[in-house]
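Work Package 3 (structural annotation) set out to generate three-dimensional models for the target panel prioritized at the project kickoff. During this period the team completed the workflow that converts sequence records into discrete structure tokens, so that structures can be stored uniformly alongside our sequence database. As a representative example, we reproduce one entry of 224 residues exactly as it appears in the project archive.
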Amino acid sequence: MARLWMTVFLVLLLAQGYVAVVDTTTLANLIQRLRQRYSVSGMFSLAVSLKGGNLAHLEEIFQQNPPDKVEGEILKGRVYRGFRLALAKVGQPEHAELRVLKDLNLDSIKGDMLVIYSYASPCPTTCTNICNRYNIINPINNLINIGQWSTYAFVFEKVFNPRDCKKGLKESELKRALTDLADGSQIKLPDIFRCYKSNNKAFTCISCSSAGKVTPQCVDYNVY
């Protein structure tokens, strides 16, 4: 009876509006531990499949994907693909996110959580432009369609800033990139997060959805 009530409750929530189910504290701890474990500098991306969304499962992922093995592949310019983990840096013309996601197949069962991390937020002209051959929307949907995850999140740390643009992109362009990602992919705006180091050097995660609109901190270059 309790399970039936919960099912009806969830259906009602989804009917009334999408509700994020990814816990920001768990997400912040996950990103913190991944960043500490793998010393990759610059623009990079990773995808991790966490069993049951439980941080305790990270230890198995770390054991199966030792840092020297992961970083060794990255130094050779390759995409690392291992046990429930994939990681890559930029390989022009492909951005790091696309290199990680392209033809990716991570182990998953019902109840698992998929987290896609990108050092920078998605760019509007390539990453979230469905008409661009190097977009990440199609690969995200392909990955989710072949997996069994119960929850998923897209996480970025810094706001995207092109190398040739000292002032950064307009706020409207940055917002459009996030809404295009949410509209085109199965990862909706409440489950797009910005995770950054606060003053005490611990990661803080915020959802990029506030009352149905893009959260200001997710497009603010001064938040880091």
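Helices lie at 2-16, 24-37, 58-64, 67-75, 96-101, 137-146, 171-184.
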